[in-house]
Structure formats: C-alpha cells, structure tokens
Amino acid sequence: MSRLPLQGLLVLEFSQYLSGPSAGLRLADLGARVIKVERPDTGDACRRLSIKDLWTDDSSLLFHTINRNKESYTADLKNPEDLAMVKKLIEKADVLTHNFRPGIMEKIGLGYPEVKKINPRIIYGAISGYGKEGPWKNRPGQDLLLQSMSGLAYTTGNAKDNPMPFGLAIADNLCGSQLVQGILSALIRRHKTGTGALIEISLLESLLDFQFELLTTYHSSGKLPKRSKVNNGHPLLHAPYGIYATADGHIAIAMVDIKQLAKAIGCNELMAYDQKVAFSLRDEIKSVLAKHLLTQPSSVWLEKMHAKDLWAMEVLDWKRLTEQEAYTCLQMEQTITTSKGKDITTTRCPIRINGQRLFSSKPAPQLGEHTKQINKELLKVKS
Hints:
Elements: E1 10-13, H1 19-29, E2 33-38, E3 55-56, E4 59-60, H2 61-66, E5 71-74, H3 80-92, E6 95-98, H4 104-107, H5 112-118, E7 123-128, H6 143-149, H7 170-193, E8 197-202, H8 203-210, H9 212-221, E9 242-245, E10 250-253, H10 258-265, H11 282-293, H12 298-307, E11 312-314, H13 318-321, H14 325-328, E12 333-337, E13 343-347, E14 349-353, E15 356-358, H15 371-377
C-alpha cells in the first residue's frame, strides 16, 4: 500500500510491557511513526522479561513481538538536559502514550496539563491499572491480578473448579485496543476542531466492559451467574453450549436446538429434552450429551452436525490450526529479521484496507538505536 492511513503522524510511546506498547504497535501498523522513549541502559522492562526459551538476540521474544515497526530513543527523564530534548520532541508529536501508575508522569513534569502547554494539539493517551482515583489506584496493574479481582476468573471452567484465568493477557490486549479507539476518535475531532485531548483508560474498566453481558444480567437480577457443573462454556447460556470430549479429541458446540441436535447425532436419550428445559436442566442435558459424544471420533460428529447446519467446530491446537487451508488463506504470518539477523515469525496486523493486508518487516529496535538519527532529523542537533 503506497500510503497508510496514519502516515505522517508522530507518536511518542512512554509505555512498557504489553498494554501501551500493543497500542503503539497497532498505530505503527496503520502508518504512524512510533518512537519509544526508553531509559538508558535498561529500556522497556519487557526487554528483560524472563520467560523460559523466549529470548532472541539481547531482548525477549515478547518485546520483539509487540515493538516491531518502532524506533527507540533513549532519555533519562530525571536529567534536565534529556528532559528538555524530550519536550522538544513533544512539540512535534501528534500523540503521546504512557502506562505508568498515576502520578509518575506528573512528578517528572510530563503530566497532561504540562504537556498540553507544550503542545495544545497533542492527543495524550494514559493507561492505568485501576484509574487515577480511589483506594486501588497504586495497586500493581498486572493482567492476572486484574482478571482475578474483576470477576473474570469466575466465567471460565466448571462450577466446582477453582477460579480460572484466561491463558493470555486479555486485559492488556483489550486495553491497548481501546486506547487506539480513543486516540483515533480524538484525532478525528482534532481534524475538525484543532483541539487536542486527554484519553484515559484502565485495565479494570476494560475488563468490566468486556463482561457487559454478565454485569448487566447481575444488575438486573441481583443474582450471580452460575457456571455449568459440566462442560461450561458461558454462564448465561443454556445446554448444549460448551466443549465436549470425543473418542479422539474435542469439539465445541454453540447455540443449538436440543431436539435437532439429538436427531443429528442419533442420541435417543437426548430426545427426552427440549428447549424449554435447556437452561433449568442444563447440567443434566450436558451430562447425557457428553457421554454420547465419547463413543465416536470428532469427524463423525462434525459431519453429522454440519449436514444439518448445526453450529459445531473441532477444538484445534496451534499446530493443527496452522495446517488448515482456512488458516493459510488468511496469510496471518509474517517474518521479521532482527538487527542481529535472527528471523522471527509473528502475526501481521489483522486489518485490511481496500482489500490489502498490512505487513511490516521492520523489527523491534535495539535500545537507543535511533537516538542520534532522531536528534539530527527532528531536533536539528548536530552530531
């Protein structure tokens, strides 16, 4: 694509770990120039994230994954000379993002009121764990902790299971995505009015929004949603919704009429139930179905259900998924080569514009790799 939608926009990223940098990654994929402002010597803490077997070159693989397509500028924000240089960058920037705890940017003189004086048109995006007010504002904004205290860990697993977190950083990813939405809306308004904006979001608010169905139901009924005792898929949905073991694997069954399902798979015992009791007898129905599905392999059941247009799919791991034609035709993979010559296969931006997929082979930057270039180009500092 000759020109991406955000080409020409300059973003300063003061973020680390996942939530803020994931927002910067999406802005970069859409064409913005994203400069990570990092502390000298150590940089983004994610560079040193200790996960077994997930290192490449001198930074973690996770860092490379969410910081590709960016530049790195080192500055000690406690040093007056470095801070003055950063403020000059702010004068030229369109967007600034950070995900520090409330009060940190204010202490170094880079809170929104101060930044707005430097650049009234800037879009200032701030991510926190729990918001900037209240007794939790200084608690650590870590994904597992947020999943646990937001109620989300009670939506997965069966009724007798312990609280179960998602197997990925869902709060970070959602929050980063929603920050991008806020930034883009503010950029549109700035185009119309010329005014900047403060965009604030927290991991907790993102996870509460994520659970809007469950919370709305709770507020309406005053009752806590209950997970199924067996094969739980969604605490608000009736049988047969869930994942079931078969003779050789697992299949997922979504919203399906009980009678239609019973006929499709030839389960006489299941014929005794209908939709009127699909929720009240949810566990009983699921137990009958689970026993029946163990008698044949997944392919047999899927063929029978798909012939009747019933909603069911096989449960795949990543190896089997990536072998499917339906996966390969999406072209979701791209290869980036680090500055040390290491090839990394990762995902591309999922957005298509006018039918074109967005690929970028630019790797994550080495710490301070672009400092001299940025000083010369943007700040007119002679080397």
